[in-house]
């Protein structure tokens, strides 16, 4: 082997000098290199000596100079290390540590044993024996004020009822402000947590459900209303409400079910769901009538009389359809646009899974979906149906699309109405969508002492068109001021100005709006009368139907009013005039209600009496008629509670009397029809004759039957049966309005099961 060249040895690392050299491989360093290295080592030794003579801190910093921590980082690390140094415990001011597990108190010389590395026992001693509470551990501090368990349970129950009734968030009583308030109002009470509320909600639901079932076992006849609703999260819920008259002739209405409905809204699936609910409450043989909207799927679902009784079309929906169809407030677009809209509606409600069982329903009925025929879907509408929801309040108010009005109508007034409604919607939408216009209008309205805001009408919102026109009339002077200053108003775009100028209302437009408001006001009042839930409404539907018909046929001095009435007459006869068994039951309910008894025509009165006579005779022949002893017992039971509840029920029902009296007067129905009551001689042979002979001007429904029910037992049973029927689905609509608040923005995460519990309990709690 040859020797390694010198150049190679120069490239070797310096660390090789510390290793043991092999003379045969590595060449020894030259004397000059040794001298240089010696000088370097001498300098390093001097530096080390200087460092060693310095303080300890400088030595530490010098030792870190060769690390990867910069100077500022090393200072920061040193600072952190310094802050983490252990501080002397305040315990040592009052106690001395005499051994690893013993402390001696300096205040009383007592020796306290502690676990190694802890001083909790001496802390306890100093806090409890010498009042040094600042040294006490959290677990040793004096407990907060407490209340008896019975009172706490009572307060928890009241808090949970408050949460359900007001649709509050589960953790409302654990919010800082509420905790502070409770600490002052009820020291020692902090309210239930959200988890406690959810646990109690489920228990309360099943308890109240059982109580409700027991309550319904005492009821002979029940009517229901049902409707579907879509939440903001596009979840569909089906609501069923029960209506009946108790032994004291008080109208009761409560929610039977409010559940999420999954999948397609086919009539067979809706019917199966309703039947399942009725079966769970043992009501399958007690249903006398069902009130729904005019949706084809719901109509088909409740068409079986043996299961759901007589089906009634919601009169509030019928009034809404009468106005929309008669005045062409929502004219149909071109066939292409209509097809597009229908496909959107189909996708919204039909493009879902085929499982209608929500997370709280039993899955046993899922197999029935394939066995039952699908009569129709909710995407298909009857010719008379107009029950589709607008996706946005302003979606139907845009004027960018040409509207053909109703070209087939020979009456130009219909085209004028369409054009005026188009202008009104454009004005309202343009103002509402512009913050500048909205703020400017608000200032002008405040100067005119107007507190209400402009509103837009919606297809499915009852009387919303009337309210929009009424509000525009209130803003007439404000809008005139807006147009005067529109060109100089900063921040308004040219497109907004153009829309407002193109939609400016002239004198003829304002006259037409005035006429529409006058005519539609009667329909608004009729809807409010039918929306009452404290008095029978089916009997009032008879009075409202024929009073409105009288109003529409009666000519006024204003030609515009007469033309509008003429347009409404055809659609009114189509949607409002009933026939068949539905009308027969309405006549019977009107006959049995003292408010409407004398409004019946002779023909309708005879027909109602014949209907009742036939039903009672059929019951007698089938041996299902109630005995007189049963009626006597029921009457005696009701007598005990009459005095306590007569005052409250009388005040509610007298309100219904004044409402219907005022409505009839405004429709032009002669007051003598309801005020002149001849006191006929009483007969005992027939209850119907006796009913006709009793003067009724001093009674409302409840007080009349509480006084005369025992002497007219058969008619009293008919009154309980038929006057519990609701003429509208307002109960379901009201539940949807409530659930919309329950599922407001800050509670969107609420599960469908908790929504079901909450909605069911809202009218079952004793507040």
From TrEMBL:
Q: Where is the composition biased (Acidic residues)?
A: 346-363, 375-406
Q: Bias category Low complexity: which stretches?
A: 23-34
Q: Where does the BED-type domain start and stop, copy by copy?
A: 86-147
- Report if keyword DNA damage is assigned: no
Q: Name one Pfam family in it.
A: Dimer_Tnp_hAT
Record keywords = DNA-binding, Metal-binding, Nucleus, Transcription, Transcription regulation, Zinc, Zinc-finger
GO MF annotation terms? DNA binding; protein dimerization activity; zinc ion binding
UniProt region (Disordered), positions on chain: 1-88, 336-413
Q: Give yes or no: UniProt keyword Acetylation.
A: no
Organism's domain of life? Eukaryota
Task: Provide the protein's localization.
Answer: Nucleus
What PROSITE patterns does this protein's entry cite? ZF_BED
Q: Which GO terms describe its cellular component?
A: nucleus
Polar residues composition bias: which ranges?
Answer: 1-16, 35-44, 52-62
PANTHER family in alphabetical order: ZINC FINGER BED DOMAIN-CONTAINING PROTEIN 39 (PTHR46481:SF10), ZINC FINGER BED DOMAIN-CONTAINING PROTEIN 4 (PTHR46481)
- What's the protein name? BED-type domain-containing protein
What species was this sequence derived from? Adineta ricciae
* Organism lineage: Eukaryota, Metazoa, Spiralia, Gnathifera, Rotifera
